[in-house]
């Protein structure tokens, strides 16, 4: 039981740090808005394709919906509950970005488990501590940028 608590603490640290970054800086930059808007369209307009934002604002490069589709699938139950409660879409944005952050942290956690297997628990804990203290990784893990969508699969 004590060993389980020790192994879960670094995971809780990563989740906590990512949540702090999300709450301290909840708004998005323009680069993030494309994927966030695609996720919004999938969650709120569903099969009403004519209402999707990219028809009105197609942009220079055709957008992909693969990342937003997966993200919308994971986020849909919570966003649906928020819609039933008539919560602001701002909370849906936080949920969507939080789910993306959890996907990235899940990938980091799988990497940490392999580090633990290869190099031992001390190195695995150091890996989590270094990851948690590196601003860019924890800040950007909740940002709907194409590179962040790719990170869980790398």
Overall pLDDT: 87
Order of helices and strands: HHHHHHHH
Number of helices: 8
Task: Based on Cα principal axes, name the global outline.
Answer: elongated
What structural class do the secondary elements suggest? mainly alpha
Task: Classify the helix fraction into a percent range.
Answer: over 70%
Task: Note the gap between the termini.
Answer: 32 Å
Low-confidence stretches: none
Number of strands: 0
Please outline the major beta sheet. none
What is the C-alpha radius of gyration, as a whole number of Å?
17 Å
Share of β-strand residues: under 5%
Could you name the key traits of this structure?
mainly alpha; 76% helix; single chain; 8 helices
Concise overview:
With 154 residues, this protein is mainly α. It has helices spanning 2-24, 30-45, 53-56, 66-84, 89-119, 121-133, 135-140, 146-150.
Topology overview:
Blueprint: H1 2-24, H2 30-45, H3 53-56, H4 66-84, H5 89-119, H6 121-133, H7 135-140, H8 146-150
Helix pairs in contact: 1-5, 1-6, 2-4, 4-5, 5-6
Question: What does this protein structure show overall?
Answer:
The protein has 154 residues and is mainly α. 76% of the residues lie in helices and 0% in strands. It has eight helices and no strands. The chain has helices at 2-24, 30-45, 53-56, 66-84, 89-119, 121-133, 135-140, 146-150. Helix 2 packs across helix 4. The protein starts with a helix and ends with a helix. The mean pLDDT is 87.
